[in-house]
Amino acid sequence: MLVELLASSAISAVIPFLTKGGEAIASGVGKDLWDLIKKPFKSPDEKVIVKQLTEKPEDHESQKAAAKKLYELLQEHPDIARQIEILLEKNPSIIIQNIQGNGNIGIHDVKDSNITISR
């Protein structure tokens, strides 16, 4: 998987865990994924990005900032990128849709989850 796509997919996949008030992220796939995502964010400025995403996971600007920085960091840490990729591939509870082109809309229904439709 391309690192840019991996970064945005990882952030998208962790959002439902973060929006449930931390209860779902406390264990299992959500915790594992979140721990991997946070791992390369080490500088004070990078930690601010993680804090903003944690406090406002549904904010699209926070998501974009986190995905952009994660992309940059994963290029420096291919070992972490590979671990995230393996985790995303092995967990059927994480559904990622990557749709390319103009004017496309993708919808997937998952019980008790948030559905975001963007253009």
List the defining traits of the structure above.
about 120 residues, mainly alpha, 5 helices, about 60% helix, globular
Poorly predicted sequence stretches spanning 5 or more consecutive residues: none
Give, in order, the helices and strands: HHHHH
Question: Number of DSSP strands?
Answer: 0
Task: Report the C-alpha radius of gyration, rounded.
Answer: 14 Å
Distance between the termini: 23 Å
Count of alpha/pi helices: 5
Q: Would you write up a description of this structure?
A:
The protein has 119 residues and is mainly α. It has one domain (3-90). Helices cover 59% and strands 0% of the residues. It is built from five helices and no strands. It has helices at 3-19, 28-38, 44-55, 60-76, 78-90. Helix 1 crosses helix 4 (60-76), helix 2 packs antiparallel against helix 5 (78-90) and helix 3 packs across helix 4. The model has no long low-confidence stretch (mean pLDDT 81).
Concise summary:
This protein has 119 residues and is mainly α. It has helices at 3-19, 28-38, 44-55, 60-76, 78-90.
Task: Spell out the blueprint of helices and strands.
Layout: H1 3-19, H2 28-38, H3 44-55, H4 60-76, H5 78-90
